[in-house]
Amino acid sequence: MDKESERVELEYAPKGMFPEDDEEDMFEIDVEEDLDVWNRGSGYTWGASSGSWWGSSVGSATSMSSMWSTNTYDHHSTAQRLLKHKNAMDSLCKVVDPTVKHTLEFASANGSGYTDMTRGHIVIDGKLIQDNDSKLDVVSGLAIHEKLHVIHSKPLQKWQKGIEVEDMCETYAQKKLLHSIANIVEDEYIERQLHKTCAGYVHYIEACKEHYFKDSGIADVDLNDFTEIVNTLLLLVRYPAKLDADRRRKHGKHIRVFMAELKKGIDNRSNTITCIKNIYNYLMKIAKDMTPDDGIPDDVMEKLEDKADRYADDYIDDFKRDVSSDAWAEMEADGKIESIRDDIRRRRLANMVAAEEAKRSDRLSRIFGGEFTKALDEATDYKSAELSSRMANQIKDLADSGYSEEMIDGALAVSDGQRKVSWEKAKMTARTTRVYNEAKSNMRAQINKLKKKIQLYGNTNIHNIYRQPRGILDKRQLHRIPMGMTDLFKAKITKEDKPLDICLLVDESGSMGYRLMEYARDASIAIKEALADNPMINLWVYGHSADNREKGQTEMIEYHSPSMLDRPMAMGGLHARCENRDGNAIITSALRVNNESDNSTQKLMIVLSDGEPSADMYRGYIGIDHTQKAVKHVESRGWSVIQVGFGGIRKRYMDEMFTNWVHVEDMNELGDKVSKIIRKVVKV
Known about the structure:
single chain, alpha/beta, Rossmann fold, three-stranded antiparallel β-sheet
């Protein structure tokens, strides 16, 4: 094809795409030439600069993520660590644009291996950080990159689903090619937007690019000639340093064309779409030139004929089994068998030839498909390695439980190594429902006692004060007027109870065992049921243990709260676990209720336990003394604290730790003893 006819055919071609001089030297790219068409910063990242404050900060740290992550997860399970990182990266994505909603998860064998921009669902590679945190910056960059897609890529997605693209792409291979080009250009377009609003995040993108391009073998993948050209486009856009001398010399012409298109190709959305279309049309022309319509090659035809022969032979073998030997001999002698075989072969070959011709008419699919595009897919789509179903389920279970961690104020903890507190919400299952209902039935009498004793709380009480110098005239005092008395009046005082917040804090340490745990669980359920109908009382029920997940950590489980009304029988899951760090549990429970309640006055904490505190570096008088200080601390913040002791707890320890306490030896005493001390403390 001559130059003039080429230009007529390719009216879309940009000016200068096809220079007059067709000599090879015209298109040769200097092996030392900087091919970054946009003059980006470090790591070909928009906005990257070694002089920025974040750049200097990273220089003294191991990674950008080290500025917000910690190294205190040594004892965490992998699921805990991954969940913490997922939550942190979710927060990073929210900062990128808080107005655009999203959800985020790790890719897993459960089948969630892609990002869905329609519903803002981001899926990233958690496999990179499953064993350690060395690639935490990379995965953070992946999350931010996908959030940028959710923010910016919907117009492009809409265009790709429109009529124009339908007219451009008639086959799957053509759609695949357009998708690859669009991904390559769009990735750079969206990353360009980041430094405008979140300049400090560009390092994450830089780390991501280095991982997937600088440190990868994407330039050395075994591809065919056409797919190599697409790969050159990918490297030119995303990481030009990977364009080695051989590739520059071989694809010089294509590089010049790509650079001409890309120069202003991501300035705005309109330019991006135009750029994608022009590059697509250019590559389609190359594909057409690489795949002349020369019919079915001889070697392919030979293979088709062999297949037709085998098919006909198999057909005759099946036919022979279906007829008698005499009929077969007669048909064979007449030449009918050979005639049938030839007919079957001819028809089978004709069908295969027609299918091959149809296939070969789609020239692009012959050179752009199957194994040649797999490597490009992984680069252009940032393909995510999948976590196992087991790991994904562990993370999901933790996430569903609302697992979180916090640190107690250092001044309130025994030591710095005992500040960590974890929180999660209990599940309601068939078992917890059964246990709850059994306890409710067994404690019916005690529930009624408690209800009768406590139900007066919240009522409006009116009191008359007599013999007042002013107020309402008390007619019963009129006889005292002749005596010169003036205190003939009465005053009415209305007393309304303020809302009351009650927190039940249940010891779930191993020493509670079966029987004592049953006592505490039954008592908690009884108290909850007794308070259920009182609109003036809000109830929280927490269980606490320690050192099970990590030494020094206090582990809290939320069994009931105003935000957990959808799990009314989760308290049936109260159970003995590990150790108990009572002081930490008291402090963090009071703080959590304070944060969730609008009531700033009446607050009551009821601590149910069987003995003294006992945990790692928290035994004997260390634990007793700290629990005492914790009680005084929350009491100074407006709380009333009561301990309900079970089993062999020493009363002198109870007296040392708590201002108000009661020891329950028989569950039949629960209603009377607990209601009495509650009424005393809250002055019902």
